[in-house]
């Protein structure tokens, strides 16, 4: 991947340099307690292809960074709708050493319904958590506890999910490096609640047309993020937009 902008670790690579492997991992390193999102979009802002899935617009460079970001995370935060639509499974082994053999996945669901691919433990894969609200109802909460385990269903908030409290709870359990993979409604909520430290945005060289949603959709956030790293590979642009420090 060719470096276009590097304000993250200037000594690692200068604009015009090619990076891969551990040098790439250095450019995506972040502090201990950190919430980053990873999203992909077309040139005209579509967050999915014509089939409604992100997989139809992913490129090989995007997939490489996707795997790296999962390696660097303790837990993957995803909305239940996205987990069902994209066929999420519990994460597999890391490609590089981490604090645990696998990252975990935490699914956010207002109804406390566990997506099928995350419901049962799988050998050689990470654990699963449910982030929900009290208004989901005790019956739904008990079903989720039966599937995931009583200690893995995190109830924060009454009418709405309190994402800040949920992330603090996960951090208290050693899961402080959070990777949010959307979908657009969850990303909008995370940003609106002031919880997003960084957006990793891949722009693929495709004009999609159609009526796909943007990468964030729903509540307004007006969150300012600034580019700190831009890479290019095969026409794909990979960005790190970081929240300015006060």
TrEMBL record:
Gene3D superfamilies: Dihydrofolate Reductase, subunit A
Record keywords, A-Z: NADP, Oxidoreductase
Pfam families documented for this protein: RibD_C
Bacterial bifunctional deaminase-reductase C-terminal domain segment(s): 34-224
UniProt-listed InterPro entries: DHFR-like_dom_sf, RibDG_C, Riboflavin_Biosynth_HTPR
Pathway membership, UniProt: Cofactor biosynthesis; riboflavin biosynthesis
Domain of life: Bacteria
Name of this protein: Dihydrofolate reductase family protein
Species of the source: Nocardiopsis changdeensis
